[in-house]
Design goal:
Length: 261
């Protein structure tokens, strides 16, 4: 409890040397730190060595601050979100702010039972290969605002019984495109819950879809607020049930009418 990491440089090496791990802790601050990851895609494949390879991992903790840090080059194969610059797992009151997060498999991954009261604000995330930011199965209203995301895809993934909602506002998403294709935002419904997602005051530039609204097992993300967003060069929305051909729309009105939103 009550530990401050301030000004450290952590260089990850091989498959065993990880970054900063915070587990079962309270009132921890990680400030002004640099985490230099490593690419382990060419390491001999052993059980789990290509998984959970994270720059900063916060696990079952509360009242955590990660601020003014640089996290880069945390890369595994396959290029999935389960190895991230920052990973959160079942926490409460985590704030991530003023960080530069780049060139990782995933930028920030708020994973299963994502926790309560997560705030992600005023960060710069770019060149993260699979996802810039993944929010998966949040418990209670994560807030994501005033961030800049470029060269990657924001993914909102609702898939768990405890999902409630998330607020995503005052962000810039530019030049998005990843393993999801040239898509800025993916709203993917899960197997056992729906989520009220609020998305407003954002600037989105994408060469492909701006929104991919995807349903699985008859569950779709419920977008309860969608106002005052600017889409360039032209709004494109793709809707599909998992495994089916997508339906595309070029206006909010046609999307809402056809899908009954």
């Amino acid at each position: 409890q009550y530990v401050v990491w301030d000004g450290f440089t952590v260089r990850m090496r091989g498959v065993q040397m990880k970054g900063i791990l915070i587990e079962s802790s309270t009132n921890i601050e990680v400030l002004n730190c640099t985490v230099e990851g490593n690419d382990i895609t060419n390491e001999p494949v052993q059980p789990h060595n290509q998984d959970n390879h994270d720059g900063i991992r916060v696990d079952h903790s509360r009242d955590i601050l990660i601020a003014d840090c640089r996290i880069k080059n945390v890369v595994t194969q396959p290029m999935g979100g389960n190895s991230a610059g920052i990973k959160l797992y079942s926490n409460e009151n985590v704030t991530i702010e003023h960080n530069e997060i780049s060139s990782n498999s995933c930028g920030i991954f708020d994973k299963f039972y994502g926790g309560k009261n997560t705030v992600i604000r005023r960060n710069l995330l770019y060149n993260n290969v699979a996802h810039l930011l993944t929010i998966q199965q949040p418990w209670a209203d994560p807030k994501i605002y005033e961030n800049i995301f470029y060269n990657g895809a924001f993914v909102y993934d609702s898939g768990g019984t405890y999902s409630t909602s998330a607020q995503f506002y005052n962000n810039v998403i530019y030049n998005s495109g990843s393993v999801w294709g040239n898509t800025a935002f993916v709203a993917r419904g899960g197997s056992s819950a729906t989520t009220n997602f609020q998305f407003w005051n954002n600037i989105v530039y994408a060469s492909g879809e701006h929104i991919s609204h995807r349903c699985e097992n008859n569950r779709c993300v419920q977008i309860s607020a969608h106002d005052f967003n600017a889409y360039f060069p032209q709004l494109r929305i793709s809707v599909n049930v998992y495994g089916s051909a997508p339906r595309s729309y070029s206006s909010l009105a046609s999307w809402q009418t056809s899908e009954g939103l």
